[in-house]
Amino acid sequence: MQGTGTSSPAAMGAPFQRRRGSALLCAPMTIPDSMVSALKGAAGVAVAVAFWEGIRALGVVDARDLPSFAAIIRTALTGLLGGELLAAVFATIGSWAPGLLIAAIAGVTVGIALALMPRLEIATRPLLEFLRPIPSVALIPVALLVLGIGLQMQLFMIAFAAIWPVLFSAKAGVEGVDPRFLETARVFGLGRMERIFRVVLPSALPSVATGMRTASAIALVLAITVEMLTGRPGIGFYIENVRLNGLITEMWAAIFVTGVLGYLVNALFMSVERFALPWSPEHRDQ
Amino acid sequence: MTSKASHIAPLAWQIGTIAALLALWQWSALTHPAPYLPRLENIAAGYVRLWHGDLLYSAIIPSLYRLAIGFAIAVIAGSVIGLALGYLRGLEPWTRPVLEYLRFIPAVAILPAALLLFGPTDTMRIFVIAFGSVFPVLLAAIDGARRVDLTLIDVARVNGLSVVERLVRVILPAALPSIFAGVRIALSIALVMMVISELIAADNGLGYYILRSQRLFQTANVYAGVLTIGTIGLTLTLALLAVENHVLAWHRGWRGLSNAGRTA
After folding, report:
1. C-alpha count within 13 angstroms, C-beta hemisphere, residue A279
2. Are residues A22 and A102 in the same domain?
């Protein structure tokens, strides 16, 4: 649903542009559709920036609290090119990645186990259904009690929050394996472990990859939240710290960079989905 | 005979698992007393205390009030803007880069900015809840409106419906199933943002209660608060599913009918 690939929405908009384009441009030289939508997108960004500057100019809020867009970009660039901001980004990635990795390994293992062992699934269902709706951030105080402040606690929170999408997508992926594949494998005399590694896992991987993309965004939120709350090094702590020190432009620059980081993380997992898993049903039809 | 037995057996397993876990917890709490392992009766007492008397008004009600307003803003704004953007397909290339950027900002990162602009007020917390949960609704509404059967729109146009009428009477119903899927995601994000905003800057609400209890080492109250948030999350999710089932009853019926027609 949200998996808007870069190509399909542009393709959806294409007929509209072509109709417009031929009428307005009389098309002696044809501008490619992709360039037209890139220009429109740039115009949209320009409007958004103008909106920001407009709020500043109207004086609805104190102008000191809203630095100009150019100043934010400039500060973001200097911060990234050898400033503290880059170090903060890497610190966040440094706890985000291992936390996500733990969630991925544990989630896939548990998800597959639950799908292959119905009795285990039945017995643990109330527990899972009970744990899942608890917003993971509410457990930060509990984790503080048990683990104290530190990397261990941060990794636990990231992994705990990010495990759910992986777990349930792995379970759904395994449950959705075409039984004919399993029967074929059995006919060829594959053992139980071989069937899991050579049939079940590859068929479940597309679903797991989608779950991983959701999990990556959640893990980022948790990493930043824990940094804000406990002062662990990273972009969350950086944002809070510069705000408390009154460095407003630095704060907005860090928020801007966080958005870029979130975008890049999603793009990374989108391309993982697309290239590493060419047999995914979503791509089979294309 | 067998069917009855197979219904009872899973239930027995489930009750058994929960009872075993609770027993293990209580046993460890009694034999290895630690600050993070309060006894079950203390947690239960804390839970009951939260739902009665002062704490109901200083913890649960403020949280629910902010959640309700922030979530309502997100659902309404997300649906309205999303339907318009999805229906007016020409707008899509203009808005896409901005939306694609905004939706991936981890919503917590916005919190310090909101704190700066609005101060530690309810407006700030409501803004953060609404900002965090608006994007799933918005994107789902865009998607739903874009997938509306073009024949339906043409029929509406032929029958002389205005743009607003078309949006309300054709596009909205057709996009509702998609919107509800987005609203369900938005609810869980809204809960997370509610708790985060109270953990970082609040003097009431459940998040504040949990954090304060943790700092005072009233650990049973921490667990009771977490349980309360879980209860609220579960209740709201079930309520949303009930509303969805009710509102989309026509949709399922219609789909079932068309499926039946296809197989017949």
Report:
1. 6
2. no
